[in-house]
Amino acid sequence: MSDEIYEEQPACHHADTTERDERDVWDMLQYKLLTAADPDGMYMTPEEVAVYTGMSVQALAMARHRGAGPKCLRPTPRVVRYRKRDVDAWMDAGSGE
């Protein structure tokens, strides 16, 4: 065995990429909220809702499929959008407020 010291590599490169992507989505969402004329009426992507609520995109999709998630809009069969006010109402209803 060699006495060389190896730098420890991250266990999963994908995890680093995912965290960076989530930060990018969060930063863009913050910018949209600050610059929107009506932040509560703003449309959000599933990725934005996921970082906003702390859920994963997959958990959000499962909740949507079961009818347990926030109200969503489908402008086309492949596109899903959420209004911020609907997401907030759904989160408030789930917290017992």
Notes on the structure:
The protein is mainly alpha-helical and 97 residues long. 54% of the residues lie in helices and 11% in strands. It contains 4 helices and 3 strands, in the order αβααββα. It has helices at residues 13-35, 46-53, 57-66, 84-94; strands at residues 43-44, 73-76, 79-83. A 3-stranded antiparallel beta sheet has the order 1-3-2. β2 and β3 form a beta hairpin. The model is unreliable at 6-14 (pLDDT under 50).
Which secondary structure elements does this structure contain, and how are they paired or packed?
Elements: H1 13-35, E1 43-44, H2 46-53, H3 57-66, E2 73-76, E3 79-83, H4 84-94
Antiparallel strand pairs: 1-3, 2-3
Helix pairs in contact: 1-2, 2-3
What are the key terms here?
single chain, 97 residues, mainly alpha, three-stranded antiparallel sheet, 4 helices, 3 strands, globular
Query: What is the average per-residue confidence, as pLDDT, rounded to a whole number?
Result: 85
Give the CA-CA distance, first to last residue. 62 Å
Approximate helicity band = 40-55%
Structural class: mainly alpha
- Approximate shape: globular
Number of helices: 4
* SSE pattern: HEHHEEH
Beta-strand residue fraction: 5-15%
Largest sheet: 3 strands, antiparallel
Strand arrangement, major sheet: 1-3-2
* Low-confidence segments: 6-14
Estimated radius of gyration: 18 Å
- Total beta strand runs: 3
